Fold:
Amino acid sequence: MKIILLTTTICLFTFNSNAQSNFQFWKMANDKNKVGDFEGAIQIMNEAIKNDPKYAPHYYTRADSKFRMKDYNRAKSDFLKTLDLQPQHYTARKGLADCKLALKDYTGALKDYDLVIANNDSNSDYYQGRGITKFYLQDYDGAINDLDKSIYLKAYTKSYYYRALTKYELDDIQGACKDYSHISDKTTEYKNEKLTEICE
Structure:
């Protein structure tokens, strides 16, 4: 009985120590990410993974830092590792879809966005990502449907921008200009010469 109790105590101590250590690693990395020190966050998560290589959130946190650095291939690898350890990690699935979209793997991105939307159909980001993917696949009607849903859930500038582009491709110039008017700062990535010329 004493041996069993001692073994149980050791296991609980190890579990609690790992949980506390994992949280501390995450907090340090998160603090680095907040100030834009993504390399620092990655170094911290490298140590975290050495400490607990089977803990899926470590790979997700490192993937997020790599994605913010626009290192999409390496971020993709860590999102895949996260999903290997925790297949129902839908935030990682969305990150994987975002990587594929950035890498112009539109067919692959579409499959992953479909999976996350099947799990949660009330997230504006998910519909935005899938709508943009459909735009690049030239499924303009599908893109409009998803971007409509994205804007209904939360009116992001990026969703208006891509819906404007989509409407332009569908020769809905009035609708395109109306959406383009929602973009207040057209000196950013959301500036489009064609839309600027015909709408302003």
